Amino acid sequence: MKEKIARELEKIKSKDLYREMPEMSEGAGKYITIGDNRYLNLSSNNYLGLSELESVRVKSIEAVENFGTTSGA
């Protein structure tokens, strides 16, 4: 099975379809830094930067304390 996966992966790479995540020097905030460039991080759930607001953090804690959490939606 490993050999089959390796062959398929090589096919993907040979067609230039293999994607790698670029190394980021800053984490998953509103912005990410890759090399010397800063980008709006549209691939996270924080692209609006709401998790960085103290008022949002306080209300989130209150909501968890009052209503709890669940893994189901």
Keywords:
two-stranded antiparallel ribbon; 37% helix; alpha+beta; 2 helices; 73 residues; 11% strand; 2 strands
- Give a quick account of the main beta sheet: strands, pairing sense, barrel closure: 2 strands, antiparallel
Strand order of the largest sheet: 1-2
Give the SSE order as H and E letters: HEEH
Helix share, percent: 25-40%
Strand content: 5-15%
**Rounded radius of gyration (Å):** 20 Å
Low-confidence parts, pLDDT < 50 over ≥5 residues?
none
Could you tell me the mean pLDDT?
Answer: 86
Structural class: alpha+beta
Gross morphology:
elongated
Distance between the termini: 36 Å
DSSP strand count: 2
Number of helices: 2
Overview of the structural elements:
With about 70 residues, the protein is of the alpha+beta class. The chain has a domain of about 45 residues. The chain is about 35% helix and about 10% strand. It contains 2 helices and 2 strands; from the N terminus they run H-E-E-H. It has a two-stranded antiparallel ribbon with strand order 1-2. Strand 1 and strand 2 form a beta hairpin. It is elongated. The mean pLDDT is about 85.
Give me a quick take on this structure.
The protein has 73 residues and is α+β, with helices and mostly antiparallel strands. It has two helices and two strands. 37% of the residues lie in helices and 11% in strands.
SSE topology:
Layout: H1 2-14, E1 31-34, E2 37-40, H2 54-67
Antiparallel strand pairs: 1-2
